[in-house]
From TrEMBL:
This is Dynamin-like GTPase OPA1, mitochondrial. It is found in: Mitochondrion inner membrane; Mitochondrion intermembrane space. PANTHER family: DYNAMIN, DYNAMIN-LIKE 120 KDA PROTEIN, MITOCHONDRIAL. Keywords: Apoptosis, Coiled coil, Disulfide bond, GTP-binding, Hydrolase, Lipid-binding, Membrane, Mitochondrion, Mitochondrion inner membrane, Nucleotide-binding, Transit peptide, Transmembrane, Transmembrane helix. It comes from Dendroctonus ponderosae. GO terms for cellular component: microtubule; mitochondrial inner membrane; mitochondrial intermembrane space.
Length: 957
């Protein structure tokens, strides 16, 4: 059964599992009587279920109405607490204007007229039901007692509903939160009681109703807040886009809004720039910073954490944890966060997980800074800590001073720490925060003497006595603490003396716990009660205020002097540049690298300008240079020296197939890669000879090209593709036309002549100067060369007598040559004779091959008519030539379509790698021109930041 209260409450529609609505009026009596008068169908539900649905709908309206009342009540409570009745109205109007837009609720919630109309209808319904409804006791087999109880219950609920409606309306006008809440709870109880079969079930219904109310309220508030934020964001973006669009229409470039930075952040950036510029911490950097020094385990890191109000440093039991200087920039902000200078991650210092990550990151950076077996490092770790109530200053936490080195430390650890500490303290504008452990004997201190030597007058030293609670407990004479804090015990002097308590010896204690413990200790301390120390000398809060005041006073006194020194430095560098490089623009390594990148990539683009014909010609030449040795030594000469044409063709076919299946594809790919590399280097060489060439890039360009060449690998599938086409080409032994025949003969002739030239040079190296050279140029043969000449003369006679001599000397021929030489008193062995024979016979064979090539020039028609002609070597070289042409064409396509682009990609990858590697830039871009431009750029940048900071500092005054 379903109840529905329509928008204007002019009718009440009640349906009993029917799709037809019944208007409230004359039909309602008939319909209700049909329920209670005995004419109900089998599908008719009990009346308490109808009331439950009615009650559920009414409860939803009460929830929404109560929500609006609660929102008003929040304002009334806040306004009354802040300004009273007069300011209440103004606060309410301001608050109401800033609230999310809830107009969409008007379509859901009824207004006052609708509410009054609904209340009247409800009263009319009550009267009609009381007067006209007769409940049939047979419904659901109810007894007479149940019938009377149910009828009484229904009448009472109608009265309660009307009364509640009137009361809620009145309370909404009065904006009374407590009464509305009680009323809602009463109605929850009244609605839930009839359905609760047990007391526990009634409580459960009440809790679920209250929980649902809270969930609806929270969900609505979150949705509206999110909606309002998104709306404001879109409005801002729309406004900015309209502004930029207007500027673009006017032909003006929109100005980017500059983010306003805090004063301490600007100062910290200046210190970071100075640290990078002056790695050795020389006299160029004289800006103030607070240097935290002390003996190891004296509590200096704990003091810094108390000032930063977070445990940001790793801790170790007796182990040295601070291994490098840590620069901490403190500034005030709405959220307590920390961030490293070179990282974008923010660590939420209110979350223990983020604190643990931060401590691990600090420890990791410290260990990474220690290289080469050292224990401590001078590499600065920079971080920023922001939070509510933090004093603005820059602190540098240094490794603790040690008196004894352990075996696991480097041999120079103690001296390195002292030198690093002195270097920071020797800055005439550094504020020295001297930390002394109050729980140990003053005579065991190492830091006080070091501070006294660096700042004997104490004009920039602040003394801090830690662990005062332990000192008060252990010292028999409290006046000793008074002497320390009055500057009468240690020989050093200081601007101020402070006593702090940085913990109870528990490393897991929160900062707030330590602060409470510190305040309670000093509140009950005998030192204060007995006037041993002043109240202004205690707690880390007073310490941080004093340090910040001293820090900013010194900053204002010294920053302009530092800016003037960099202005003079800049003038000197600019003068040097004008004198040495008058026509060049100042470019640092990054700018020079980008110029070199553009020139290298331009040369890669020039590869596309090489025509296909030029590529194939160069590939042919390079490929023959790579395979000619194999063709002559492993295929042509062994087959030709057999002496029979049938044997020659068989041997050639076998050798060619083996070659094509094994090494030829790899040789072809190597030839293509070398051709691409050679062509690219030609473009680079041509660019280096141009008039506008700048030789400062040469070393970088060579390194980039060589690295890309080493990385480049030809595609693996190229070898398989080449193997197939090479095998098919080499198997074709036919020469179709005269032009191919002439090209093959010409190729054979040129190849044989080239090999003959090599053979002549080999013989000349063996025999020494010729007769002509000996007579005309007064050159002489050595004894060995003279012997070789005699052997050659004997071998020439053998070849002259047998023009078709096989390539190997017989034993009898070797003996004859040696005997003939012995008659002339020349002793040689068989190996000596064979060495000369190989060179002589090779020249003899090539001369015969060259003669056959001449004879075959006009033998094409005889070959075409399949007549017996001795031109098998022409056919061989034709097959090799055709194979090289097909291979060159395939390699050219691979180069232009794939490999040139892949080489371009690899060169870009190398350039990207080098662009991120500052060491590579320093190594490959060298010279005074580079270092002077870099130094001038850094000095300008530092001066600009100093001037920007001074301007902001003066505005703050």
């Amino acid at each position: 059964m379903e109840h529905l209260l329509k928008g204007k409450f002019g009718r009440l529609v009640i349906s009993s599992y029917s799709n037809q609505p019944i208007r409230y009026g004359t039909q309602k009596r008939m319909y209700i009587s049909s329920i209670w008068g005995g004419r109900a169908t089998e599908r008719t539900k009990p009346l308490f279920y109808q009331h439950y649905k009615f009650q559920k709908r009414e409860y939803g309206m009460f929830v929404v109405r109560a929500l609006r009342g609660v929102l008003k009540i929040r304002y009334l409570l806040l306004g009354g607490a802040v300004a009273g009745g007069g300011a209440l109205n103004k606060k309410y109007n301001d608050w109401k204007e800033g609230m999310p837009n809830l107009k969409w609720l008007d379509d859901v919630l009824p207004d006052n007229d609708k509410w009054n109309q609904w209340r009247g209808n409800l009263i009319e319904l009550r009267d009609n039901v009381k007067n006209n409804i007769d409940i049939d006791p047979r419904i659901a087999a109810l007894s007479e007692a149940k019938y009377a109880q149910l009828k009484s219950w229904f009448d009472q609920r109608l009265d309660d509903a009307v009364a509640a409606a009137e009361k809620v309306e009145q309370q909404s006008a009065n904006s009374s939160s407590k009464e509305i809440k009680n009323e809602i709870q009463d109605k929850h109880t009244a609605f839930a009681r009839p359905f609760a079969k047990k007391d526990g079930e009634e409580d459960r219904v009440k809790k679920e109703a209250q929980q649902r109310l809270n969930e609806i309220q929270e969900e609505m508030m979150q949705t509206q807040i999110k909606y309002q934020r998104e709306l404001e964001k879109l409005e801002r973006e729309n406004k900015e886009l309209r502004k930029q669009n207007l500027l673009l229409k006017q032909g003006r470039k929109p100005n980017l809004k500059k983010i306003k930075r805090s004063l301490i952040d600007m100062y910290s950036e200046v210190l970071d720039e100075l640290a990078d510029y002056d790695i050795g911490y020389n006299t160029q950097d004289q800006l103030p910073r607070v240097v935290v020094v002390g003996d190891q385990s004296s509590g200096k890191t704990s003091v810094l954490e108390m000032i930063a109000q977070a445990r940001i440093f790793p801790r170790g039991a007796g182990e040295m944890m601070t291994r490098a200087p840590v620069k901490v920039t403190l500034s005030e902000g709405p959220y307590h966060v920390a961030q490293f200078r070179d990282s974008s991650r923010e660590f939420d210092l209110t979350k223990e997980s983020d604190l643990a990550d931060l401590r691990r990151e600090v420890e990791l950076r410290m260990r990474n800074s220690v290289k080469g077996g050292k224990t401590v490092s001078s590499e600065v770790i920079s971080m920023t800590v922001k939070g509510p109530g933090l004093q603005r200053m820059v602190l540098v936490d240094l490794p603790g001073i040690i008196s004894t080195q352990t075996t696991d430390m480097a041999a120079d650890t103690r001296e390195s720490i002292r030198q690093m500490t002195q270097a920071y303290m020797n800055n005439p504008n550094a504020i020295i925060l001297c930390i002394q452990d109050g729980s140990v004997d003053a005579e065991r201190s190492n830091v006080t003497d070091l501070v006294a030597n660096c700042d004997p007058s104490g004009k920039r030293t602040i003394f801090v006595l830690t662990k005062v609670d332990m000192a008060e407990e252990n010292l028999a004479d409290p006046s000793r603490i008074r002497k320390i804090l009055s500057g009468k015990l240690f020989p050093m002097k200081a601007l101020g003396y402070f006593a702090v308590v940085t913990g109870r010896g528990r490393k897991d204690d929160a900062i707030q716990t330590i602060k409470d413990y510190e305040e309670n200790f000093f509140r009950n301390s005998k030192l204060l009660k007995d006037s041993q120390i002043r109240s202004t000398q205690v707690t880390t809060r007073n310490l941080s205020l004093a340090v910040a005041d001293c820090f900013w006073k010194m900053v204002r006194e010294t920053v302009e002097q530092q800016a003037d020194s960099f202005k003079a430095r800049r003038f000197n560098l600019e003068t040097e540049w004008k004198n040495n490089f008058p026509r060049l623009r100042e470019q640092d390594r990054d700018e020079l690298f980008e110029r070199a990148r553009g020139e290298i990539l331009d040369e890669v683009v020039n590869l596309s300008q090489v025509s296909p014909r030029e590529w194939e010609e160069r590939l042919l030449v390079n490929m023959w240079g790579k395979v000619s040795g194999n063709v002559f030594e492993n295929i042509y000469l062994p087959a030709a020296q057999t002496g029979a044409s049938e044997t020659f063709n068989t041997a050639v076919d076998i050798k060619l197939r083996q070659w094509a299946e094994s090494t030829l594809p790899a040789q072809s790919v190597e030839c293509g890669w070398e051709s691409l590399k050679s062509e690219f280097q030609k473009f680079m060489q041509r660019a280096s000879q141009a008039p506008e060439h700048d030789d400062i890039f040469d070393q970088l360009k060579r390194a980039v090209v060589n690295e890309a060449m080493n990385r480049h690998k030809w595609e693996d599938k190229a070898s398989d593709m080449l193997r197939v086409i090479q095998l098919n080409t080499l198997e074709d032994r036919t020469i179709a036309d005269k032009r191919d025949w002439d090209q093959a003969v010409k190729f054979l002739e040129a190849s044989v002549k080239a090999k003959m030239k090599e053979s002549e040079e080999t013989l000349k190296a063996l025999l020494g100067p010729s007769v002509k050279e000996r007579w005309l140029y007064w050159k002489y043969q050595s004894e060995v060369q003279s012997k070789r000449q005699q052997v050659k003369n004997e071998l020439d006679r053998i070849l002259y007598s047998n023009d078709k001599h096989p390539p190997i000397l017989s034993y009898d021929e070797l003996t004859t040559v040696r005997n003939n030489l012995q008659r002339n008193a020349i002793e040689v062995d068989n190996e000596f004779v064979r060495e000369i024979w190989n060179a002589v016979y090779r020249r003899h064979f090539l001369n015969k091959a060259l003669g056959r090539a001449y004879d075959c020039k006009k033998a094409f028609y005889l070959y075409h008519q399949q007549m017996d002609v001795d031109c098998a070597d022409v056919v061989l070289f034709h097959r090799v030539q055709q194979m090289m042409k097909v291979t060159s064409n395939a390699l050219r396509q691979q180069i232009t379509n794939r490999e040139a682009r892949r080489l371009d990609k690899e060169i870009k990858e190398v350039l990207d790698d080098y662009s991120q590697d500052q060491g590579k830039k320093v190594q490959l871009l060298t010279g005074r021109r580079v270092t002077l431009a870099e130094e001038l750029k850094r000095v300008r940048q530092i001066q600009e930041k100093l001037e920007e900071f001074i301007q902001a500092l003066n505005k703050e005054k």
